[in-house]
Each structure stands twice: as structure tokens, then as C-alpha cells.
Amino acid sequence: MARPIVDTRFLFRPLTRSIVELERQLTAGDWMRPTLAGRWVVRDVATHLLDTALRRLSFQRDGHRPPPAPSAPDDFTALINALNADWVEASARLSPRVIADLYSWVSSELSDFFESLPIEAPALFPVSWAGDQNDGWLDTGREFTEIWHHGAQIREAVGA
Q1: Which residue has the higher pLDDT, 158 or 1?
Q2: Is the pLDDT of residue 67 over 60?
Q3: DSSP 8-state secondary structure symbol assigned to residue 59
């Protein structure tokens, strides 16, 4: 039985705009509030959103292949956690304004990119847990869900 296609391409722009609007309203204290994302505070979740958008554009839109991690763990989850931790640590040097401004720019670029993808484009990252190895619409939907989920973590942490 074929699964119905769910097109999320045009939902990225309003979602990411709402995240940027919220980020621009946060106080210094809000940026340091704990979230449901383990040890991450709001600023860590916000910089993670920035990182994943930059990586998606670099890998999928631009075809960039980064060098392998110097000591890449065999476990995929451990590798992702290490990449995320490295980014969060490095981004501690960025101000909240810079984070919000960069996310505004990159999320607009990401929205443009997803809106330009044909619905039948192959997946950048196969969605094997859903049984579809190469359905691009499912990969795009997973990315949308990731952004929505982390935006919800920020909103919950600051009571928005």
C-alpha cells in the first residue's frame, strides 16, 4: 500500500520565522533557561537549529562533503552527539543577536531550498525507520519535524 505524500516544503518559512521572532524577544536570562533537551539551555537548542540548517544547505544544496571526523565513533548516535556537542561548544562565542540574525538568514535560505525541491527528489538522508529508503518528501518532513520539535523546546522553556 502506497503511503500518501505529505508536502511540508512550504511550512518551513512560517515555522522558522516564528522561531526567529521569538529569539529576538528573549532576554539574557531567557537564553540561559533549561530545556527538555537534556543539559542544553535555550541558546544551545537555538545554535543547534543554526547548525543543522547550515549542514543541510552545505550537504544537500551545495554538495559539500566535510572531512571525516578525526576519531569518528562507530556508533552513528555517538557521532551525531559529538558533532552537536562540538557546535554548541564553539557557538558559546556567539551573542544571542548574532545567533538570531544568522538563523534568520540561514532559515530563509533553507526555506528557499526546500521550496525549490521537487516533491519526488531523492532523500539526502534515507528514512529507514519509516520503511522508505529514498523518499525525499519524507526526509524533508523529518527535517521539518526536527525544527518544530526544537522550536517547541525553546517555547516551552520560556513560556511562549
Answers
A1: 158
A2: yes
A3: I
Percent composition of the chain: helix, strand, coil (DSSP 3-state, to 5): 65, 5, 30
- Provide the 10 A C-beta neighbour count for residue 86: 12
Mean of all residue pLDDT scores within the chain: 90
pLDDT at 132 over 60: no
State residue 56's pLDDT score.
94
Cα 87 to Cα 23: distance, rounded to the nearest angstrom: 19
Q: Tell me which residue of 29, 47, 27 sits closest to 37, measured CA to CA.
A: 47
Helix (H) or strand (E) holding 15: helix 12-25
Of the candidates 106, 107, 82, the residue with the CA atom closest to the CA atom of residue 18: 107
Q: Kindly report the CA angle at 133 between 128 and 136, in degrees rounded to 5?
A: 110
Nearest-angstrom CA–CA distance, 159 and 64:
38
**Is 16 a residue whose pLDDT tops 80?**
yes
In the 3-class helix/strand/coil scheme, how is 21-46 assigned residue by residue?
HHHHHCCHHHHCCECCCCCCEHHHHH
* Angle of CA points 87, 129, 85, to nearest 5°: 10
